[in-house]
Structure formats: structure tokens, C-alpha cells
Amino acid sequence: MDFTKELQSAHQLVEFLTAMSRCETVEDATRTVAELIAEEFDAEIGAVISAGRVVATFGFGQQRVPESLLKAVMPGVGEICFDGIGPCHTLSAEWQAGSDGQLTVARCNEAFNYSERHLLLGMAGAFGLALDMIRVLERQRHEKQVLEVLLDIQRAISHREPLPNVLEAITNGASQVLYGRAVSLLLDDAQDPSHPIISGADLSSAAKTASAKVHIHGVSAGTLVAELDPETLDNEDELALLHAFAEHASLALADARSLEEVEKAFHDPLTGLPNRRLFLDRLSQALRHEECGVAVLFIDLDRFKAVNDTLGHDAGDELLCAVAERIRGVMRADTTIARFGGDEFAALVQTDSASENAAASVGKRIIEVLKTPFSLNGQLAYVGATVGVAHSEAHCLQADALLRNADIAMYHGKEAGRNVVITYHSSMGEALLERQVLQTDLQGALGSGELLLHYQPIVDLSTGRPLGLEALLRWQHPSRGLISPSEFIPLAEETGAIVDIGRWVLNQACLQLAAWRWIDTKMTISVNVSASQLRDSDFASDVLAALRLAGLPGSALILEITETALSEDMELALETLSALKDVGISLALDDFGTGYSALSHLRMLPVDIIKIDRSFVSSASENSGNDRFAAMIVSLGHACQLSVVAEGIEEYAQLQSFRALGCDLGQGYFFMHPGDAVAVESYLVDWSRQTDD
Ligand code: C2E
Ligand code: MG
Ligand code: MG
Asked: What domains does the chain contain, in order, with CATH numbers?
């Protein structure tokens, strides 16, 4: 080859390399080289073959060149024949670098000469090197892109962007760095594992896929799936990339879960209000930083349980949310309002002057706003609220102690008649403490035999003859002496101890009556039943067991129930009581007239006896409205064919006036104070002797 030709060839190679260096991708370079060689050699066809496949062609035969023919062309010079064109000269040159392949040109008419063969060899070698270079650059660009995409995702996670957005950024980003192939995140749905939540592109079922597991704190939560490049199945780099994206999905999910948990840990799920923990935290902060006063309002709804029981739990939940709304409505926007569970709410009041008056007037506003009835399921529900207030300056600076004081004040408010605001005073704490001590003592009273029954006769008012006995519980406290039931039964109701105690009373009273039946076989025993007992699912069977144990018929037992106990869960109570009535047990409505809906209960309940509360049994001399009320109850009772018992007859005049009203039965100190079994037995024996005589 002469020098000029060699120079020309070198020049062509430099130009060739320059053209190659402009290409950014392997694809681009391959396409360009096919075109360049076709032009350079004035050939009809320029083709690139790599890994046994024609990867690019250029020229008129572009579409028509059968691949098998091109593949058959070995490096070197040859001839192929195209239909309609005739024989064609071919020239091929191989490259071997990071990859290998061959460049091929096909030219009609003129055969290739030596220097052309030389030039193509040079071009093939240069192309191989250019490809290597482009690949390195491509990889670098790709790595940079991966880094940028992952950084964007990390930013989205740390900025706590909404989880669906972050997951979408992950699937889109993965798809982008996997050259636009479909990527999808399948999250196990805890509710229904067979139906995962899908984020990202839908994958065609035919596609080969690679997958990487997604975890939340080490527990499998789903899979990140990507379509594989059919050319490069099992590409380790791509798998590593997929794992990196799956790791980011795990991070995002774990972070979202922790946020959710934090949210749950500090908020009431129903109303979304802060819970006790968050309230105490804010209270502590306020106590630490506030120069002016801090007051805590403890708010307890008054008739929530009745609403919940009668209208159902969904209505109860709706009510609590509505209550939260109303409380919020009367507070400053920055006030912390919390729900502690059940029907207990609290508010943290920080005013320039959290004076007694300021906090109490907030309490009054709350009571006022809750007085308006709530409409639930088309029914009106009336609830009230009792508010206890405690101030920081006056008594303590500890958050939990302040809250406890507000609670104690609220408790006193309940006792004082509800719908009131009561401010804490240290004497309240002492009373409560005493109460707690008594409550603890009571837990052991039954086991240590400190409980006993006294009995009081219920007599026929026309003759004075005892027809039955009411069992009245007493507590012989080791240090405090005899404690009255009105003092300890509310405590037993609070702790639930009343259920066991009540069962014991039933058994004891029935056994005692059985022991006295020799005196009078018709004698009945009346046993007081509290609300908690009525709610206890074993109550009916306990009653039947007590009768069985004592060998008494149902007709020997009267259960005394107050209206308040009944109003707690009327439906359940009715069911239980009707079942007991079927075995002949009678029901007495105790303390009649003190409840607020006495007459409506009379219509609904399977009652046999009403006991007029002793507050209506006034002295004949008083001539108060009570007399008229008592007269009305007696005639009402008779109209409903019920027996009427006048409770608390202490004087002869009272006996006379009830006799005059036609009241059947009476009970009171006038006949006999409640007494222990020995005293009552001698009373009964005396009476039976009198009748015998
Ligand atoms: P109660 O069922 O209305 O019982 C009548 C109460 O009136 C008794 O008070 C009795 O001693 C009192 N009493 C009777 N006659 C007179 C009188 O002439 N004047 C006055 N001032 N009082 C009279 P006690 O024994 O203190 O019982 C109070 C309440 O405790 C009972 O009222 C009842 O509701 C409850 N109770 C008593 N024993 C039990 C029990 O075993 N279980 C339950 N759940 N409650 C009980
Ligand atoms: Mg009673
Ligand atoms: Mg009574």
C-alpha cells in the first residue's frame, strides 16, 4: 500500500473515531457505524453483527437482507446473491474488545480491494474500542442517575411525604433506572394477604421477572417486582439495583408505620384527640414553662352508659365524637383537649389568669354546651357532664397529681348531683383516700366473715302481722364497727365486688328463710339487688341455685330493685327478670318515687310490688305534698294490681294514715328495727304464738 493511501486511510479512521465519539449510547454507535461504513465503502449495505445477531443495518437492502445470509458471511471477502439484484461482493472485519462482533459491507458491481479491507479492519478495531468507551461512560451516567433517583426518594422519605407518593417515586425511579421496564410493588395486605395492594405498573403475566423482598422491621411486607430484559435475564447489576429500591421501600414503610404508631400511642383513635399520655406531657410542659396559672378540667359525661346501652355502641361512638366537637367549640383553638377513654375528657386551660373563676367558667360553658340533646340515629339523647377543676398554683406542680386532683373534684361533683363544676380542695383528697382504704378492706370482708345480714319484717298494715322479711346487709368492720350498707354498697358497686357479695346475700338469705319456715311456711324473703348484679350474665342462674340450695320455691323470694339500677340497661334487666318471674319469684320496685321516670317503669316492668320511699312517709302532722303523692302511689299501685309497701313507718300516726289510704303493707322502726337473726327469730316466734292464741 502506498503512503498516500495509508495517509488517506488514517485520516478516514480519525474521522470515523470522531463520529463514534459523538455517540452517547451503544445503540446509537451501532446504528451510526452501519451508516458510516455503507457510505465510506460506497456499499449498498452496511451491517453490524454482534453475539451472532444482526444488530444494525444500513442501505437499500436494510429490510430485505436475510439475516441468515449476512450471518453466513465470514470475516474476509465473499459474495452473496440478492434476488433481483444479482451477485454482491461482501467484506467483513471483526473486532474483539470488551465485546466482539463484525462489521460487514456489501457492494454490487465492484469488488473490495486490499486497502478497503485494511480500512474496514481498522474501523472494526476502532469501533470495538469506541464501544468499550461508550459502555464505561454509559455505566457512569447510569450510576449517576441511580444515585440521583435514590437521593430523591430518600428526600421524600425524610420529608415524610405521603406514603403512596413515596412508593410511587420508588416504582417510577426503579423503572427509570431499569431502562423503562415495568416495576411494581406488591404489598401484603394484612386484612387479605391474597389480595396485595399494588403500587406501580401492572406487569404482563408473560414477562420474566426479578423480585426483591420488602420488609417492615424485619417482617416481610411485600415484593418489588421488575420485568427483566429478555436479552440480559439474570443481570446481577440489575438485581442489585432492584434490591436497593426494595430497601428504600422497606425504609419508607417502616417510617410510615412508626409514624402511625406514634400517632396511635398519643391519640385517641375514636375522636383523634390527644390521649392521657400526650395530655400529661403537655401538662408537664405547661407547668414547666408557664409563668401564669395552669388549670386542668376533668370532664365526665353523666348519662353516657345509658345511651350506649340503649342506642348501641355505634351511637355511643358517634356521641363521643359529637361531644369532642362541642367541647372544642367552646375552647380557645390552642387549648389541649384530651379523651382518656370511656366518657372521660380533660382540658388544659392556660389563661393570663387561670384563676378559680376563669377555669370554672370554662367548665360551665362545657356543661351548657353539652346540655342540648344530641341527635343519634334519629333519636334524641340527653347527656350532661360533671366537671372537676384543679389549679396548679394552689396545690401542686406535678402533672399527674394535678390531673388526679381534678379527677377527685369531678368525683365530688358526681356525688353533689351532677351537671356541676367543682373546684378541688385538699379536704376532698382525704375523703377519697379514706374511701380507697375502705374499698380495699371491703375486698377481703366477704372472705374473712365480716359481712352479715340483718332482717326487718314487712308487715300487713291492717293487722301488723309480719308477712315477709327484708334482708339488709351489714359490715362488721374490725376497727370501725358496724358499717351501714349505704356507705359501703356504692364502693362494692364501683369495684364490682357487689356481684360476689350479692350472691352470698342471696344464698344466706334463702338459707335463713328456709330455717324459719317452721314458724310460718308462707313467709317471704326480700333481697336487694344492685345494677351490677343485673348486668352479670350468671345472675339468673345464681338466684335459681340459691333457691335450690335452700329448698325454697320461687314464690318465697322477692327481688328488690331500684329504678336507677333498672335504667342502666333496661332491656337486659327485663330479659333476666322475666325469666326469674317464670319460676314464681316476685319483683319489688324499691325506693319508689325517687327515680326520675317512675311511672314509665311501672308500665314496662313485670313488677308485683312497689315500695314507697320513706321520704314520702312524712308525719301526719306535716300535711305536706308528700301525703298527696303517697296517696297517688297507693291508688296507682292498686289500679295496676300491685301490692304497695310503705317504707320507714316510725310512728303510729304514719301507720294510721297509710292504713287510711288502703296501703297493704308497711315496714319501719315502728314495727321493728332491722335486727340480727336471733332478734328476728324471737320476734317471729312471738307473732306466731299470738296468732296461734
Ligand atoms: P332499702 O332497700 O330501701 O332498705 C330499707 C332501708 O331503710 C334500710 O336501711 C333500713 O334499715 C331503713 N329503714 C327501715 N325502716 C326505717 C325507719 O323506720 N326509719 C328509717 N329512717 N330507716 C328505716 P339500710 O339497712 O341502711 O340499707 C340501706 C340501703 O342499702 C337499702 O335500702 C338497700 O338499698 C341497700 N342494701 C341493703 N342491703 C343490701 C344488699 O344486700 N344488697 C344491695 N344491693 N343493697 C342493699
Ligand atoms: Mg330494699
Ligand atoms: Mg327502700
From this structure: 3-138 (3.30.450.40), 160-264 (3.30.450.40), 276-424 (3.30.70.270), 455-472+493-692 (3.20.20.450)
